[in-house]
Design a protein that fits this description.
Distance between the termini: 54 Å
Strand content: 25-35%
Helix content: 25-40%
CATH superfamily of the largest domain: ANL, N-terminal domain
Number of helices: 14
CATH class of the largest domain: Alpha Beta
Largest sheet: 14 strands, mixed
Shape: globular
Number of strands: 27
CATH architecture of the largest domain: 3-Layer(aba) Sandwich
Structural class: alpha/beta
Radius of gyration: 23 Å
Length: 513
């Protein structure tokens, strides 16, 4: 970042109340340096893990830059996480500090187990908020510190990011990304896919706490010297279209759900999106009709992309590449991503198999934290298996077929069924339950729970609402089951394992009727 013009605007920030701020590259670096000095002054050192949970604010960029310059490993965490989610991450990572927005301190304070590694609780105060007992203020940590800082020397293999992602069973997995991963990602996603130029205004809508925020709003924008537009407000399709127009956004990165809802907006022709030259989508497949709507109204092709928390962009319609509507695109480099069989052998065109990335890829994650064997178990032959299924045509275009496991992708969120089932089973009315992905026109899929109630309890709309609220209290609200069906028995194997595949097939058939 030091190579960019210090007077250039790095970020333009707006909230839904109309409050506006902006910051130059020079000022952003000065604030990051002040915080880096403050964190070192507390005693935090290279390699320490720090959990960060802040909203779409300029201070999020300051915190991430300061941690990376200090050699600290960042644990990105959504504001929607609850005390149980946070406790696991803090304990598993042996984090030494948390840096959270003042509104979220209560969830940290609700943790009722000892976290012996946790030495510092740092709150980012919203204007007018009082500092709670036991918390340090971020502003106080920065106050009086020098605005110059020599970045700690790090090796390309040193941990930079520890991102937690949902699994099919058990607790989330800690994905270790090194400093070298950041450079590899920047070269792949920012230039080849997003097509960011230094003169661009870029709006990537992901929120801090997700790997996609590190991908696009953070690394790709700042690493390219562009100007990032940040909107801290709820999603409203008309509002998004107005902002793209009024801020002259040239590069846009949204979730498929956001594109779907914008495409359904009445009067699309009234919006002038002529500045927009690059629009990309990631998180789940984008519907053909949505792509056609944007093409028809704005002469703009939304280019799909596919990647994972464990990697970076793997497959996509890259800039200037011919697109195939409905396809995920092609591998970012020939032979890097393949469709393979169980033995790790690439399949012939048209055959459905596992999407897999070559294990030597520089932007593949380093390991699963404290579980190195887990990565090894996912390597078949020379390839790391992603967990998704696809087929590849003769020209190298990938066509998505579905998940190879029970993971649910809803509105771009990755949700493990175990986390939802664990919350549901804690409710006094639930005897057994199984959670699957149910097809949904807007969100792609939603979480659906099949629930066997205890004998003396009857299902009702009131109980559905109660169970949904119960899940929201126990874990991040985006995981709650939007659909609940009460059944007498769950389908099981002879050994007693729940056959979620049968429930998924049943749900798929119902959606097609």
């Amino acid at each position: 970042m030091e190579r960019f013009d210090s007077a250039k605007t790095a970020l333009k920030w707006l909230d839904e109340n109309g409050d506006y701020e902006e910051i130059t590259y020079g000022e952003l670096l000065k604030q990051a340096n002040q915080l880096a000095n403050g964190l070192e002054g507390l005693g935090l050192r290279k390699g320490d893990r720090v959990l960060v949970m802040v909203p779409r604010r300029i201070i999020a960029y300051v915190i991430y830059l300061a941690c990376l310059k200090t050699g600290l490993a960042i644990i990105p965490s959504s504001e929607m996480l609850r005390a149980k989610d946070l406790a696991y991450r803090l304990r598993h990572s042996e984090a030494r500090a948390v840096i959270v927005w003042s509104d979220a301190t209560q969830e940290v304070d609700k943790i009722d187990e000892d976290i012996p590694s946790l030495d510092y609780r740092i709150a980012v105060s919203a204007e007018g908020a009082e500092m709670k007992a036991g918390w340090l203020g971020l502003e106080a940590t920065m106050k009086g510190q020098s605005d110059t800082f020599d970045a700690v020397q790090t090796h390309r293999d040193d941990m930079a990011i520890l991102a937690y992602t949902s699994g099919t069973t058990g607790n989330p997995k800690g994905v270790v990304h090194s400093h070298g991963w950041g450079y590899a990602h920047l070269r792949i996603a920012a230039s080849l896919w997003l097509d960011i130029q230094e003169s661009d205004t870029v709006w990537a809508t992901a929120a801090p706490g997700w790997q996609k925020w590190i991908w696009s709003p953070f690394l790709s924008v700042l690493g390219s010297g562009a100007t990032g537009f940040v909107y801290n407000g709820s999603f409203q399709p008309n509002r998004y279209l107005e902002l793209i127009q009024s801020y002259g956004v040239q590069v846009l990165c949204c979730t498929p759900t956001e594109y779907r809802l914008m495409a359904k907006t009445d009067g699309l022709d009234q919006y002038d999106l002529s500045n927009l030259r690059s629009a990309v989508s990631a998180g789940e497949p984008l519907n053909e009709e949505v792509i056609n709507e944007f093409q028809r109204h704005f002469d703009l092709t939304i280019r799909d992309g596919y990647g994972q928390t464990e990697s970076t962009l793997l497959i996509g319609t890259l800039k200037d590449a011919p697109s195939r509507t409905g396809s995920m695109g092609r591998s970012i480099a020939e032979g890097l991503v393949e469709v393979i069989d169980e033995e790790g052998t690439p399949l012939a065109p048209g055959e459905v198999g596992d999407i897999a990335v070559h294990s030597d890829m520089p932007a593949l994650f380093q390991s699963y934290y404290q579980d190195s064997e887990r990565k090894t178990a996912s390597i078949h032959g020379n390839y790391f298996v992603t967990g998704d299924r696809a087929k590849k045509d003769a020209e190298g275009y990938f066509w998505f077929e579905g998940r190879g496991d029970d993971i649910i992708i809803s509105s771009g969120y990755t949700i493990g069924p175990f986390e939802v089932e664990e919350a549901l089973i804690k409710h006094h009315a639930v005897k057994e339950c199984a959670v699957i992905a149910s097809p949904d026109e807007i969100r792609g899929h939603v979480v659906k729970a099949f629930i066997v109630l205890k004998e003396e309890i009857a299902g009702s709309p009131e109980l559905v609402k109660e169970l949904q609220n119960h899940v929201k209290e126990w874990t991040a609200p985006y995981k709650y089951p939007r659909k609940i069906e009460f059944i007498k028995d769950l389908p099981k194997t002879n050994s007693g394992k729940i056959r979620r595949v049968e429930l998924r097939q049943q749900e798929q058939r119902a959606s097609q009727e």
